[in-house]
Design a protein that fits this description.
Length: about 325
């Protein structure tokens, strides 16, 4: 420090404190190896806490900071460290997420670019559709089928409330696909369903009020998944289950998901939507490149097949609705 002749204080560079950027410790790209991590299965996610099954013990864990902002979902296989006793008030850490074999995704609607991962590592999608109260929703089923094909999942159609409506129209609609299905009512014993679920990891998806959680409760007594009815004014189901949960069943897993009113496909390319309808996709291979399959599309093989009666009119109409809604031309909110 120096002073001026008048006794005043004169500042120089030695008087200026320089603060190191990022703190005093040097940054490093090294991350903990966590060689002691034990593999677990994420069975539920609730407000930043992950319920994992580790060596048969249910453990509550948080996500390690080094994993960043990436999502962890039900069905993920993860590496867990810390207190794995499962005792009350203990908390472990998820430090690693294994590569996913499959991912079931949706968007909020057909214009939303943000993908939402529903579950990971499933191999089957059970699409639950009621035959009445609420009425059947083929468009919703079609959307789920496209998502299943995109994710590489085998679809299974579960038609509920057969005591209130006939399954014949829905069965006839999906017969060309060879889609496996089961017809269910409160009176039957579900004997046809378990054989489809044994040794599979099956995701149950459906609109609110179709009886999805009721079905899960019947398959696994004591589960006590919340159930609800249908609003008599709007005809819409009431949301009951609020989060996905994986439940052991028949040497595999059932994953019950919250009811949804829309199943957006913004993350799927239109060409892949056509592939979700195999019998139409086979014909579409003879279409000109970038054919939109519209009434004014020149030399459209799909339109020719429709006119010749070799393609089902309802299936083609459903595909057209998906393609137009995917392009933002038509509102597609499900009831």
């Amino acid at each position: 420090m120096s002073r001026t002749q008048g006794g005043g204080r004169h500042m120089d560079e030695r008087d200026v404190r320089v603060r190191a950027r990022g703190g005093s410790k040097p940054r490093t790209s090294n991350r903990p190896k966590h060689a002691d991590a034990v593999e677990g299965l994420v069975t539920a996610v609730d407000r930043g806490r992950y319920r994992c099954l580790v060596d048969g013990v249910p453990v509550v864990a948080m996500k390690a900071r080094e994993l960043g902002r990436g999502s962890i979902v039900v069905g993920d296989r993860v590496g867990v460290v810390g207190d794995l006793s499962g005792r009350p008030d203990t908390l472990a850490r998820v430090v690693r997420v294994k590569e996913r074999r499959s991912v079931l995704r949706r968007t909020a609607d057909d214009t939303d670019p943000v993908e939402r991962i529903i579950v990971a590592n499933a191999d089957q999608l059970a699409i639950v559709c009621s035959l009445a109260d609420p009425e059947p929703q083929p468009r919703f089923v079609d959307r789920c089928l496209v998502a299943a094909y995109d994710a590489g999942l085998e679809p299974l159609l579960c038609l509920t409330k057969a005591d209130l409506g006939s399954p014949a129209p829905m069965v006839r609609l999906y017969e060309p696909l060879g889609l496996p299905y089961v017809v269910l009512s409160p009176e039957n014993d579900l004997s046809d369903l378990p054989e489809h679920l044994t040794r599979h990891t099956t995701v149950f998806v459906g609109s609110s009020g179709v009886g999805k959680s009721t079905l899960v409760n019947r398959l696994i007594p004591g589960t006590e998944r919340a159930v609800g009815g249908v609003n008599t004014v709007t005809g819409r189901g009431r949301h009951t289950s609020t989060s996905a949960v994986a439940l052991q069943f028949g040497g595999g897993w059932i994953i019950d998901t919250p009811g949804v009113r829309s199943f957006g496909l913004a993350h799927i390319d239109p060409a892949e939507i056509v592939e979700g309808f195999p019998e139409i996709a086979e014909v579409a291979r003879d279409c000109p490149e970038d054919c939109g399959h519209r009434p004014d599309s020149p030399d459209c093989a799909v339109r020719k097949g429709l006119a010749a009666g070799t393609l089902d009119a309802d299936r083609v109409a459903s595909l057209m609705r998906l393609l137009t809604s995917r392009e933002g031309e038509e509102e597609t909110t499900e009831q």
